Amino acid sequence: MYTDKRKIIIAVDGFSSCGKSTFAKAIAAELGYIFIDTGAMYRAVTLYALEHGAIRSGIVDEEAVVALLGDMDIDFRFNPERGASDIYVNGDLVEGKIRTIEVSNCVSPVSSIRQVRGKLVAMQQAMGRKRGVVMDGRDIGTVVFPDAELKIFMTADPKVRAQRRYDELRAKGDDVSLEEIEANVLSRDRADMTRAISPLRQAEDAIVLDNSHMTVAEQMQWFRERFDEVMRG
Length: 233
Ligand code: DC
Prior knowledge:
Shape: globular
Number of helices: 9
Bound molecules: 2'-deoxycytidine-5'-monophosphate
Number of strands: 10
Helix content: 40-55%
Order of helices and strands: EHEHEEHEEEHHEHEHHEH
Distance between the termini: 16 Å
Structural class: alpha/beta
CATH superfamily: P-loop containing nucleotide triphosphate hydrolases
Strand content: 15-25%
Number of domains: 1
Largest sheet: 5 strands, parallel
CATH topology: Rossmann fold
């Protein structure tokens, strides 16, 4: 279907637990593009900070996090079993450790540190240089790639989002409560939207996708129509 050789950049931004990664990954697989989950990068920094004493009892020591940044080498390596890339820090596979509630509870303050964003945004821009990427995050269409040809802003009912994240964590065997997840989803929305640097907001030229009551197949159908419109110019 997609024979056009012109590769574009697709930015997928939106609230937490909207299914951005699932959607972005499916798009990338269909188009043969590279999928980059930028939330995983902020989570990896947070995990590293937790493991190296820069976050204690949930309190983030900004200076200590910034001091650790130079020691961290983050990279993605494609995992054919998952059909997506796994994230590594200093050569260690951390993919399985970055989606715990402990990391989720500390990732917003870490992601609001200017130097953290500076380092990760520069890496993201370098990864998109060859184009043909689908990148999901909070500031992709506004800051990382303001000229992306297709920008999608995803949203869904907070209750639906909390239930999805709850099901995901329970399936992994995590002992969490729905109330705890709901509180985390709402507080991260608030923190992401109100932080001083690169707050979560819809780019003016982004198209909104509310997937509260949509299956992945329906979202993909919606996407194909938008993609065709962009490629037709
Ligand atoms: O997409 P996620 O829930 O895994 O992202 C984790 C956190 O990282 C999220 O609460 C906000 C932050 N984040 C960000 O500030 N900018 C991005 N581009 C991606 C994520």
